[in-house]
Amino acid sequence: MNKDLRINEEIRAREVRLVGEEGEQLGIIPIKEALSVAAEKALDLVEIAPAAKPPVCKVMDYGKYKYEQAKRDKEARKKQKVVEIKEVKLRPNIEDHDFMTKARNAQRFLGDGDKVKVTIMFRGREITHPDHGKVLCLRMAEFLSEEALVEREPKVEGRNMVMILAPTAHKHD
């Protein structure tokens, strides 16, 4: 629902379709009458569907409604996972043992549900052999093929080659 609902005197329509506090339809009535119905029950008149003709208004406790809404929003935020991009940096002439260490780190990041950015850093004249970097990227993708999908193919950006891996959907949560 939108945050800025019009309430009570802010409602500009001449007549509204009124819904009671229990959700019962009270029909189309003039705004003054709707306001007095809400006032009698010491509740607010809240415009819940401003686009409708005539606008739909409901008799409710607006403060309580806003509180409930905030609680629902907070719950929804708690449940969502923020996907971070973790980076693993390698050099083109990396030793096997070091490669495996980096690959296991990437595996751990993917296991946590994060994306992994594999960066091959070229120094000096190493950039003249981008094929070495590509081989390394593909080797990493092959090693992580169980946990990850290649989201972005290896691509040279300046003095680096970058590839992005995303975790596969079939996780056992």
Describe this structure in words.
The protein is of the alpha/beta class and 173 residues long. It has 2 domains: 8-77, Roll (Ubiquitin-like (UB roll)); 85-167, Translation initiation factor 3 (IF-3), C-terminal domain (Translation Initiation Factor IF3). Helix content is 34%, strand content 31%. It is built from 4 helices and 8 strands; from the N terminus they run E-E-H-E-E-H-E-H-E-H-E-E. The strands form 2 sheets. The protein has a 4-stranded mixed beta sheet. A 4-stranded mixed beta sheet has the order 5-6-8-7, with helices on one face. It is rod-shaped. The mean pLDDT is 87. Keywords: Cytoplasm, Initiation factor, Protein biosynthesis.
Features:
rod-shaped; alpha/beta; Ubiquitin-like (UB roll); 2 domains; 34% helix; 4 helices; protein biosynthesis; 173 residues; 8 strands; 31% strand; Translation_initiation_fac_3_N
At a glance:
This protein is α/β, with parallel strands linked by helices and 173 residues long.
Structural domains: how many = 2
The top level CATH class name of the largest domain: Alpha Beta
Low-confidence residue ranges: none
Using the alpha-carbon principal axes, give the shape.
rod-shaped
As laid out across the biggest beta sheet, the strand order is: 2-1-4-3
Structural class: alpha/beta
Give the amount of beta strand, in percent.
25-35%
The fourth-level CATH homologous superfamily of the largest domain is Translation initiation factor 3 (IF-3), C-terminal domain
Helicity level: 25-40%
How many DSSP E strands? Answer: 8
The CATH architecture category of the largest domain equals 2-Layer Sandwich
CATH names the topology of the largest domain as Translation Initiation Factor IF3
Q: What is the radius of gyration?
A: 29 Å
- H/I helix tally: 4
SSE string: EEHEEHEHEHEE
The rounded distance between the terminal residues' Cα atoms is 30 Å
Largest sheet: 4 strands, mixed
Mean pLDDT: 87
